[in-house]
User: Which sequence fits this backbone?
């Protein structure tokens, strides 16, 4: 009797175990089948080359050079950085660490003297050739420091082979003297004949409305609106050898330009500047419409900030609908002219910033990191890890493997022998697992963020199951 009971117990236990194993196998099959239901979206179609700034990445100093994934830009300021002329030195003290972390360029605020003098962030320019060496507008130094300190900063950045981009405000001016204006029949603050540098003097004749017309594409804040149709203005801004553009590039050694408020003037202005001066350029076209961004970038022959991506990320991450990341963005339309960002000195709406950085630093385009996010607000080690992943693994075209409300998985398809990666973003409150198709058969992979300790091996059909932490991300590539 005891033997019979024992046999029955063993049989029952075996049945339970077998049933559990069979159930797990079925569950795995069902899980894989669910992922196979999702139709892979091949987002971009090109030869796989990374974003290029058009500037040689060779390094005479043996310091940072662009890696397989391309470069990363640092916005090296925020609104109302400390006054007192210390900012250029502050940034100078950072560039070695930034270069070691893989930052390839820095974007500086408008560097010339502006109407608000020692307190100005530079967006109200008076004298384009006063970098803190003339006593005007109540100060000699700018808010950021002296010309010598600026030159030292640029030199220090170049020593690390970091490119330096100047913020250029050429839509409007401020700080001129009042003069009678025959075109308006009133007095206007358009007399800039007294600027201390003596270069690029201006009067009412060089601002709208004037003999060239009543207005251009846009004006800003009631400031005098520069007339780019005026040959004198063109000459001083980008044509003559000692004009603004060529002086900044050839004498001050800036490597490129961030054009402020490009909605205020025709795209031909940036196109002509780039043709005459050269260097990398990106326009601030504050618009979420991809068609408008793409048309401007093509017409201006310039990169443009990807505001379409910015607003989609805000809706996707903060609105808990990651499927919105399937929608159109500038980097999808033209990855070689899209500069992506999570926040900047003007707008800071995205709450789930680390998820957003995991997105832009694994996807195409030219990603920008905001100074305060990096130096003050977020985990610098995690950002450095993402920068490393971007530079070393984020290669090739992009395919979206899966998306729903709280999960998003995309694949970079690799380029020139570099295997690419798979990024998994999870906006839910629990760990998630998902079967996805990689580009690698019978290959061990790992999560290069360290968020997952799995070391799975892909199947012969290149499928594999990966996992992602709650409110987090994991980034997978070949374990080598």
Assistant:
């Amino acid at each position: 009797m005891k033997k019979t009971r024992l046999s029955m117990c063993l049989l029952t236990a075996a049945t339970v175990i077998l049933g559990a194993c069979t159930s797990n196998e079925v569950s795995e099959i069902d899980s894989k089948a669910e992922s196979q239901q999702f139709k892979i979206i091949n987002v971009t179609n090109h030869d796989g080359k990374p974003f290029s700034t058009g500037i040689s990445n060779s390094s005479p100093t043996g310091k940072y050079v662009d890696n397989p994934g391309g470069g990363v830009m640092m916005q090296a300021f925020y609104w109302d950085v400390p006054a007192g002329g210390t900012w250029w030195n502050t940034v100078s003290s950072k560039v070695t660490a930034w270069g070691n972390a893989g930052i390839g360029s820095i974007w500086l605020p408008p560097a010339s003297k502006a109407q608000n003098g020692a307190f100005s962030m530079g967006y109200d320019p008076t004298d384009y050739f006063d970098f803190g060496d003339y006593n005007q507008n109540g100060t000699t130094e700018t808010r950021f420091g002296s010309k010598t300190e600026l030159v030292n900063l640029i030199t220090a950045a170049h020593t690390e082979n970091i490119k330096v981009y100047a913020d250029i405000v050429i839509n409007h001016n401020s700080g001129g003297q009042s003069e009678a204006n025959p075109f308006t029949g009133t007095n206007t603050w358009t007399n800039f004949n007294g600027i201390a540098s003596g270069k690029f003097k201006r009067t009412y004749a060089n601002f709208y409305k004037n003999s060239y017309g009543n207005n251009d594409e846009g004006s800003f804040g009631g400031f005098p609106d520069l007339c780019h149709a005026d040959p004198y203005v063109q000459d001083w801004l980008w044509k003559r050898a000692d004009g603004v553009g060529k002086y900044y590039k050839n004498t001050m050694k800036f490597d490129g330009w961030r054009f402020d408020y490009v909605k205020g003037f025709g795209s031909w202005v940036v196109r002509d500047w780039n043709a005459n001066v050269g260097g990398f350029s990106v326009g601030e076209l504050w618009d979420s419409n991809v068609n408008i961004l793409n048309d401007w970038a093509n017409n201006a022959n310039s990169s443009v900030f990807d505001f379409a991506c910015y607003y989609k990320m805000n809706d996707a991450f903060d609105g808990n609908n990651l499927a919105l990341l399937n929608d159109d963005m500038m980097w999808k339309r033209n990855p070689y002219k899209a500069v992506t960002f999570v926040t900047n000195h003007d707008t800071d709406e995205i709450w789930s910033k680390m998820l957003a950085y995991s997105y832009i630093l694994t996807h195409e385009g030219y990603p920008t990191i905001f100074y305060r996010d990096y130096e003050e607000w977020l985990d610098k080690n995690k950002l450095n890890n993402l920068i490393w992943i971007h530079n070393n693994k984020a290669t090739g075209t992009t395919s979206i493997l899966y998306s729903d409300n709280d999960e998003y998985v995309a694949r970079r398809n690799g380029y020139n022998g570099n295997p690419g990666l798979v990024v998994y973003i999870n906006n839910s409150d629990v760990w998630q697992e998902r079967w996805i198709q990689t580009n690698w058969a019978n290959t061990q992979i790992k999560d290069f963020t360290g968020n997952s300790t799995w070391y799975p091996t892909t199947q012969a059909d290149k499928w594999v199951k990966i996992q992602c932490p709650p409110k987090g991300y994991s980034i997978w590539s070949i374990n080598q």
